[in-house]
Design a protein that fits this description.
two-stranded antiparallel sheet, Dna Ligase, domain 1, mainly alpha, 10 helices, single chain
């Protein structure tokens, strides 16, 4: 066999191998979901949007990894222009094929709306969840699961400073949510905790209280929420409380709500904390699990 013929056969074999490898990678990507999170994600397809626009938005929502591959898959299967407008509840653990089928058939998951306002205690949040029209979730079930904060530490690292036996009170972020009626108790709690993580991350690097844990900051935010009359007073109120936690100022707390809330923090917040508090620290407008806290008077703000 001539050298030229052998080179030709070798070239053909290499090309075939490359095609096989690329095909295997593409097939694996099509079958592999973007993640293992089963929390429903609201996704909206607007009227007139192209397949490539939808694919880009799917990637932004964390539902697919490669929008070009999704677009190719839709077009090669003859579904280009057939993805229907509407509001869907999709999940990161769905494959591209499953997402494409859901959008092409127009099957939408029925949703319920849940609104949690600032300042609600855990029991009050549970009541609202129980009234949200979720067939698989009752107030009692929600309360029982939410009281075990340790169960969610593995998936939410900001809960690592939760004291032993603490609930998730203070970490269930106030907002308006649209939740699939098929959601479980865990699905609902994960949705609220994910929202907390998103919002806390927006100001986390601006916190200027040395050595303070997330739980200590959330606790202080709750106290300030209770004591401040208006939002503009919050930075000053927070500064006063952080100052009073310094060793030289211990014992300055009077009676009433201020003394009963702040004094116990001496045992949990290091005395090295200095009152360099910025507005960001007190933006977490909800109540943490301090037994003496009563339902605060709150101002409902847009989130």
């Amino acid at each position: 066999m001539s050298r030229t013929l052998r080179a030709l056969f070798l070239g053909v074999a290499l090309i075939a191998l490359m095609v096989a490898c690329v095909s295997a990678i593409v097939l694996r990507e099509i079958r592999r979901p973007a993640g293992d999170d089963s929390t429903p994600v609201a996704f909206v397809v607007e009227q007139g949007e192209s397949t490539s626009q939808i694919a880009t938005q799917l990637r932004s929502a964390g539902l697919i990894r490669i929008p070009q591959l999704f677009t190719y898959l839709v077009r090669t299967q003859g579904f280009d222009g057939k993805l229907r407008a509407g509001r869907y509840m999709l999940r990161p653990d769905m494959t591209m094929g499953q997402i494409m089928a859901a959008l092409q058939t127009g099957i939408k998951i029925e949703e319920s709306q849940l609104t949690i306002i600032e300042g609600l205690r855990l029991e009050e949040i549970a009541d609202r969840v129980g009234q949200a029209g979720l067939p698989s979730v009752t107030a009692e079930q929600f309360l029982a699961v939410a009281r075990n904060g340790a169960a969610f530490k593995q998936t939410h690292f900001r809960l690592n400073s939760l004291p032993e036996g603490a609930s998730l009170e203070g970490y269930l972020f106030p907002d308006t949510y649209r939740i699939a009626t098929t959601a479980t108790v865990t699905d609902v709690i994960e949705l609220l905790l994910n929202r907390f993580d998103e919002q806390y991350a927006t100001f986390e690097t601006a916190v200027r209280v040395p050595d303070a844990s997330v739980h200590q900051i959330v606790t202080m935010a709750s106290i300030v929420q209770r004591e401040a009359t208006v939002a503009s007073e919050m930075p000053q109120v927070a500064s006063v409380f952080w100052n009073r936690l310094k060793p030289e100022n211990q014992g300055q707390f009077g009676g009433g709500i201020c003394g009963s809330l702040v004094a116990p923090l001496h045992s949990t917040i290091p005395c090295a904390i200095i009152a360099q508090t910025r507005r960001h620290i007190v933006q977490a407008c909800y109540t943490t699990a301090i037994p003496s806290i009563q339902k605060p008077e709150v101002r409902i703000q847009e989130t």
